[in-house]
Amino acid sequence: MRSQNGIFQLHNPPLDNYNLLLQETLFHNANGYIGVRSAFEEGYPEGYQTLRGQYINGFYDITEMEPPERLFGLIDEKQVMLNVRDTQSIKLFVDDEEFSMFTGTVMSHRRWVDTNRGVTGRHVHWLSPLGKEVEITIIRMASFTQLSLFTIEYQVKLLNQPAVIMFQSSHNGMVLNHYDPLEPSRSEQVLYLNPAESELMGDASYITSVTTESGLSVCTAVVNFLEGEEQRQIFTGNNNITDQISRTAEIQQTVRLIKYAVFCDSIRFGICREAAAMEMDKARLLTIEELYRRQADYMNDYWDKCLVEIEGDDDSSVAVRYSMFQLLQAVGKDPYCNVPAKGLSGERYEGHYFWDTEMYIQPFFTVTEPAYTRTLIEFRYRTLPCAIENARLLGHKTGALYPWRTIMGRECSGYFPAGAAQYHINGDIAYSIIAYYLATGDLDFLRCKGAEIIWQTARIWIDAGHFYKGQFHINTVTGPDEYSCLVNNNYYTNLLAKYHLEWAAKLYELLKETDCPAIGRIGLHEEEVVRFREASRAVFLPYDEELGINPQDDSFLSKPRMDLSCIHKDDYPLMLHYHPVHLYRHQICKQPDTILAHFILEDAQSEQVMLNSYQYYEKITTHDSSLSSSIFSIMAARLGLCEKALGYFELSAQVDLKDRFRTTIQGINAANLGGIYMAVVYGFGGLRLKESGLHLRPRLPKKWQSYRFKICYRNTRIIVAVEKDQTVLTRESGPAVNLYIEDVEYRLEDVLVVSRARPKHEGR
Q1: Residues linked to residue 193 through DSSP beta bridges, in sequence order
Q2: Which of 66, 81, 365, 561 could form a disulfide with 373, with the two C-beta atoms 3.0–4.6 Å apart?
């Protein structure tokens, strides 16, 4: 994919089925509330597969999930994100010839994402079978200023002869979720969404649907405008409404159809049919040009806040900008949703939210648009009652335990060894809340909501762990590495628990003299806080004296290594070719576990131990997860291994843009997109949020001439420019701040220039 000035383009992209599916993902439109895959408006010929989907974040149905064994507490139902009504279909006829990319002659074809304007587009120069030559330009937008709104602008220009231009614009109420054979928890295609009512009101069509089990409803509304309209017919039937509009056009004349579609669900809007009418009236007050202007203004403000520029490496610049755009499209904009693993670009993982949000996506927003991080935390607060229920299901008499994968708060994973046993999710969520506080100083939010989450989740550590020979152990858990399950004293889990418990006690001291409603509401008392402190101080952190590393868990080093050199490339990922028990018996890592712990809490160990651990785990990590390469990049940069860091960064950059895992056809890998940003700012930039303040440890790979990024810390906007021999920091707005560069404290008043130190391992 080429990029120029923030516009990502494909010229004459392949039209085979695989590449069409990939383009549906790469050029999808979303705004955090709705998402629309970029299938051709006119459709594909018979025999082509399409994942023609439109989604609402957090809108779901419930379906049964048969557990393999009837044991207590195993999950027997789950939530599924739904493919809602199809509003993107438009067929074009030039006289009686139907436009298709697969008939006549496509003289040129271009697809693009314009990250400056927040739109996507297609441009086609087409010669019909009977010789009519036309130019077609189609622009799509999911509005950031009216989240319910999706628009299509369809332009047709006649080049060699006059003709009758006819559009058939459909509003289809009969759609299904797509069956994905690669999704192990999906055994069949299920009808989740049932049409309830189709109606016409003036020139607007409305289709209301209800879910089968969850009791939710959704209404979609569509209006079509044709400039210079001559004839219009509307066809209805089988919950499909087609608006057929036509007019005669002359040579060099452009005919333009504007299609407005709004989506309203009962979660946010209550009576969704009434809300859809109101949202459509709101949209119709503005021309498409005004809507584009507002979208461009929104994007301009966004790019101003999250600036990242790399000199000397165009491919890296492309990857970072594309990633940040997709993160904006994916992130939920209200407390009713989060960030699905595939964003709003596909149905893989069934729209579920994972710990990926806290550890890979929130770090981006926390230092650029912290209001989005706050909203994501509010989602966790909203689902806290479900986390409390989940804790009781797993035998805990107190506290809250968040699920591994969910939509509305309840666990959706039926495989507990790699799901419910991932207790680190509590620590991940607590870590993200603390990071938000360290970046913003927003103690009031902690007082009202954040602290309650931290305290309720901290209680689980006390109940799940125990003291043994003076140390606090946490047994039978699964860390981030899903190739080692149900282990004792997972280093990552234990280290996060230590940090979590320490902050639970700190926040109590900070808030006990304030009007903090949670303290009384949850019955938190001094004796319990004392237990938090005692456990935190005594948490056992595995360490091997001989190797000078932190073992991943108590038993990890006692297992034999798998010989990766004997594994054929087609046998990756290993989880699809080896029984889980076989993997659990070996030293093999799907993704970084201990290495991730060293990144987020680097002060827990010496640099030598982190280097030893990095070198050890690098040899046994398969990178079967898209979450893997970015963390290895970050830690390589932290250790001064800049060229190695760049190599891992480039692997992360290829995950979606080059579909490195052959999974992007099913949707973007949202967490990896956050990892790409982190690899630059937290990796090469060395950014860390600590209690002592903002820390930077800049590194510059040889390939890059320089780079710069903008962050927000304590309401101060800071531009960090890393050059060959110096780092230049500029206070763009906000008060002066103290910060640390290479652990040396400085005060940033206006402009600060610091000579850049070269780490001893640089160049390795």
Answers
A1: 211
A2: 365
Beta carbons of 552 and 593 less than 8 angstroms apart: yes
CB-CB neighbours of 523 under 10 Å: 10
| Calpha distance 376→334 (Å, rounded) | 8
SS3 104: coil
- CA torsion, ordered 200, 202, 203, 205, to nearest 10 deg: -20
Burial of 736 (0-12, 13-18, 19+ CB in 10 A): exposed
6: left (phi over 0), alpha (psi -120 to 50) or beta: left
In three state form, how does the secondary structure of 174-226 look? Answer: CCCCCCCCCCCCCCCCCCCEEEEEEEEECCEEEEEEEECCCCCEEEEEEEEEE
Cα first-last separation, the chain: 30
Strands (E), 505-629: none
Which listed residue (482, 502, 528, 762) is catalytic? 482
Ranges assigned E (strand) in 576-623: none
- Give the 3-state secondary structure of residue 636: helix
Q: What is the pLDDT of residues 584-616, one digit of tens each?
A: 999 999 999 999 999 999 999 999 999 999 999
| pLDDT less than 70: residues of the chain | 180-189, 758-764
Handedness of CA 170, 176, 179, 183 (dihedral sign): positive
Note if 378 is an active site residue: no
Task: Output phi, psi for 344, to 5 deg.
Answer: -115, 40
For residue 437, what are its two tokens? 């506080």
Which CA distances in Å does 715 have to 367, 439, 446, 463, 741?
A: 10, 9, 17, 38, 19
Dihedral over Cα of 265, 269, 270, 273: its sign: negative
Give the amino acid at 221: A
* Nearest alpha-carbon partner for 669 in 232, 25, 99, 132: 25
Q: What's the burial of 4, exposed, middle or buried (CB within 10 Å: 0-12/13-18/19+)?
A: exposed
Q: Tokens 């868990």 map to which residue?
A: 553
> Would you give the distance in Å from CA 730 to the centre of its chain?
30
Strand order in the sheet with 737-741: 688-690, 693-696, 737-741, 744-748
* Coil vs helix vs strand at 327: helix
Residue with the two structure tokens 């969910």: 406
> Buried (b) or exposed (e) across 139-164, using 16+ Cβ within 10 A?
bbbbbbebbbbbbbbbbbbbeeeebe
Let me know: does 716 contact 731? Beta carbons within 8 Å: yes
Backbone angles phi, psi at 557, to 5 degrees: -75, -15
Euclidean distance between CA atoms 49 and 47, whole angstroms: 7
The pLDDT tens digits of the residues spanning 315-352 come to 999 999 999 999 999 999 999 999 999 999 999 999 99
DSSP per-residue codes, 662-722: S-GGG---HHHHHHHHHIIIIIIS--EEETTEEEE-----TT-SEEEEEEEETTEEEEEEE
In a 3-state reduction of DSSP, which class is residue 46?
coil
Compute the C-alpha angle 666/367/514, nearest 5°: 115
Nearest-angstrom CA–CA distance, 240 and 87 = 10
Kindly state the DSSP code that residue 742 receives in the 8-state scheme.
Answer: T
SS3 state of residue 572 = coil
- Return the closest-CA partner of residue 464 out of 438, 425, 435, 436: 425
Residues 264 and 219 sit within 8 Å (Cβ to Cβ): yes
Domains contained in the chain, CATH given: 2-283 (2.70.98.40)
Closest CA to 150 of 51, 274, 55: 55
3-class state of residue 238 by DSSP: coil
Q: Say which residue the tokens 């900070």 belong to.
A: 510
Q: What's CA 124's distance to the chain center, in Å?
A: 31
